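Issue 218. Parser rejects a valid record. Input:
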Amino acid sequence: MAASRRGLRWAFSLLLVAAGVLAVVGYGAAKAVAWEMIHSRAGDPEDGVPDDVDATYRPEVRPGIVLDVWVLEPDAPRPEGAVDTALVLHGKADRKRSMIGLGRRFARAGVRVVMVDLRGHGRSTDTELTYGVEERQDLSALLDWFETEGIELGSLGVYGPSYGGAVALQLAGTDPRIERVVAVAGFRSFPAINHALLELPPLAIDGVVMVAGYEGGFDPTDASPEQHITATHADVLLLYSRDDDIVPFAHGEAIARACGERCRLVPMEGFDHLGALSNLIVRRELHQHLAGVPYLGN
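Output the parser choked on:
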């Protein structure tokens, strides 16, 4: 009888050890996947600033967070119906430098452009990505900084592709200074985009999402354009491709439903994710919505 009890205790101990090993291995595997999510590795090794950038700033907008900013002043009078200033964001693992062509087109059209490297990107502070939770607060703090410095930005629009689009929508839902938004292929929420992309069992995906939030120091459920856009007063333009291989078209539909009459959803056909971010439809809609003028192809 005593031997039987010892055997049971030994078996139970083995089970506890096995469970502990599996937990450690599982967390390690989830952490490896999550690490890729919350680090962009998109630094900006290039030296120099384009000659047509009128001003550069590196404010510490929040403790420990420095944003690298370029400003292009308008080259023409502001068109009727345009915003005064367009805040131009970028996608994940990208940087503001790649958006300079768009910035130049807006400046030529008469709109001031503020281009910013989001946290964890370009020349801004190298830190974990939070899929809009902290980024939207960084950008609001940047707008506060401009006001403190006496730099008048006037009416504000924001443009973002993909990851930047999701950030733009969250900013518009939490900062009433944003009057217009153009978001292209932005995810509806951090958990939802992971369920769309990761080829793992649903419970494993939930675990990866939870670990990413823990390692990145953010609440994954709060990284939700669908949730935050309900509070916006901005005029929102959404562009999504039905053939997007990264962000499903259903994400655009969900955001549009949450936004209601303040949003206009423009469906596109035949574009994968990269194609959806830059094409003639996007350029036409973007220029008309923020600059108030047609896209002229330059």
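Fixed in the parser; the record now loads. The chain has ten helices and twelve strands.
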